[in-house]
Amino acid sequence: MSLNELPMIGDPESLSSAKVSGSRSSKPPLNRRDFLKVIGGGLLVCLRPVSSWTQESGRMLGGHELPKDINAWLHIDADGRVKVFTGKAEVGQNIRTSLAQAVAEELRVPFDSITMIMGDTDLVPWDMGTFGSRTTPTMAPQLRNMAVAGRQMLLEMAAQRWNTDASKLIAEAGRISTPDGSKSLTYGELTRGENLVRTVGDPPLTPATEWKIAGTPVPKTNGRDFVTGKHKFPSDIVRPGMMFGTVLRPRGFNATLQSIDTSAAEKMPGVNVVRDGDFTGVVAGDAFTAHSAIGAIQSEWTVPDQQGNQGLFEYLKNNPEGRAEGPEHQTGSVDQAYANADVKLESQYTVEYIAHAPLEPRAAVAEWNNGKLTVWTGTQRPFGVRDELMQAFHLSPQQVRVIQPDMGSGYGGKHTGEAAIEAARLSKAAGKPVKVVWTREEEFKWAYLRPAGLIEIKAGARRDGTLVAWEHHNYNSGPAAIGTPYDVANQLIQFHPSKSPLRQGSYRGLASTANHFARESHMDAMAHAAQMEPIAFRLKNLSNPRLKAVLQAAADKFGWSGAKSTPDRGFGIACGTDKGGFVATCAEVSVDPSSKQVKIRRVVQAWECGAIVNPDGLRNQVQGALVQAIGGALFERILFGNGQIQNPLFSKYRLPRVSDTPQIEVVLLDRKDLPSAGAGETGIVGLAPAVGNAIFAATGIRLRSMPMTPDNNIIRI
Amino acid sequence: MGEFVLNINGKRYGVNAGSDETLLSVLRNRLELTGTKYGCGEGQCGACTVLMDGAPTRSCSIPAVAAANTKIITIEGLEQDGKLTPVQKAFLDEGAFQCGYCTSGMIMSATALLRDHHSPNYEQILGAMDGNVCRCGSYPRILEAIKRAAGQTASGGGR
Q1: Are residues B95 and A288, on separate chains, in Cβ contact within 8 Å?
Q2: Domain containing B111 — which CATH number?
Q3: Cβ distance of B135 and A223 shorter than 8 Å
Q4: pTM confidence score
């Protein structure tokens, strides 16, 4: 089986929904044309392709042209209910709620009247995918635009009916009224029987200072379905007559099949063995039999010798991928400035491959109806998976529908459609709907990983702490947040792509974590070398007011000025910015003097990403990012060699648990004067360097490799 | 394959499954009780937790046939007449989830914890909850939800 195209690490990264029918109806789900027919009367707000507007402005569209048809974003039913259409995916970052808030705000309707239709390629406009913290800064304004246009149309319809001027009417709570209240119609009453299309420009949006629904802590939409087990995740989808499929995996990476014997599996009752080139899978009436049958297949593989953990970082440095490109950033002369500096430090930092380990592994249900393929699957890129399916089965866009139920998370790990293709292939062979759910081991081995990387930093400062030289090279892990936010006259900053021995791809924040770990650890080391207090050293070299504000806010809340480290208790700080978010993190760690075991006791994180759309959802994201960051900081790493992942199980790959969770305090700075940025990712970047700096403050030991304490949280030098 | 009866959420289900097939596989793939989740298949993440005669049990790690003649409660069996249990309500009120995939198992583990300890201390909470993974990192809120539910249970709001 060919591995599917993986977004390269230079791509924007990671997060994010959809609404599924868990319907037991045997009829195929409605396509877009039928769906729009069914919703029929009402107000349909569309974007015509003549608009100069692109939904991911400033970004490449992955070779896609904007769709040629009229794209509906918003529909108001005759009963006043509002449907909003977007290709973004809900993966736990709560955009089903926050996007609905943004639309309710601009359309002037109650939050509860909104239904988000998400990630269904037959129903929603084309979308590149949910990653890079792009939903809030791009999709939300887009939907707000549609809502403002819809509101304006409703005002004009009422004005026409009452023979008055639209500017004299009021839109509020789903009604258009005259100021004296003598005349009033609901949106549904106004739109009944009408189907209108309008080209939308750039109407003025409601400023955050006047928000009434956006900006408030609206609880998660359909939250009740998650505490009752009713929500249907991709792996929960059931279709009439559905079979279960499993796939034979090679013995290792880059393995060649030598021989195969499927006879034992074929003898099992109800088992259908599917062979197609190198692909071997089975289909059975129940999942247990399908797994038993795949286990009964005898296969011999040749696995070539391959790079493993041993010597990995030298390998990454010495095996560049593609032609060398120029530096990301270069000013002045680093060499000259470094030579003349009073305080000089040069260090290497490393990060290991780590796994996303979404609790729901890859899963898909595929069915074919009269040549049309429909797949329910968990992916952050429903249209990307549609493309993969079109390519794999030589189908047109109209022949493939991908439906993305709100899924069991992704963190950048579900950009691809492996399970979708496998289910579709098995379903085609079996002539029935087929479900494929990857095992945990498959998810570890056959998905993709966050890249490992080597970072080399060389920095020089004057005796008074002024940074004069900063050189930063990142091998393989990625260019995200590689540039320093500090003011340094002489800089050389470069990302060097490498040939990765393992399949790698996006991750929450991606290289932002590695680059921040290296930079902020090095900043701490420079502060000590210059005999300066770490915050004072940073502030001396920092002019960005937003970064200064979070740094100050975190320090104040933490009580930094009174925090004096001792050999068994250390305090550390780090800060940074990426994707429009600004973060500062203070950590307190304890270190057992004899065993050198580390425990993170308390974390304070200050966060600012412009105007806050949902403070509760935001706080949840920032808290969760901190907890997830503990794993990469202290103990998560993939062990591998000779084409094998050696720890592909939760019993061998440690994840952060309740007992690892420190006291966490989050300070949110709400900048209503600034546009909202996404917040799913950058909250993860500050923890590792803050913890490393705290360990140094307690012990004098500088840990420069993530994870810092893979062996039971114990510091080893 | 063997035939046996499972008592789940007060209902009897005739099941025909292999002696090695797990309870989780039967719940999810044969009975369409998909509220109980697969996460790891080795009892390490708690997503598949159900109550078996009241004891929190990793349904991925026991054969279904071993659950015959027991009373099984899954996440689908907690809500009674449209009323959430205090633990379910507390998770909802605290927003103690992000993607929600771990939530079923978290609620089952917390339900057993609060039945055994009306006002659990931190060690008791760890004992009950450290085997449940929330990869989204909602632990601070899950702890708050347990405290909230404990308060309600203590004041006589038990289900």
Answers
A1: no
A2: 1.10.150.120
A3: no
A4: 0.93
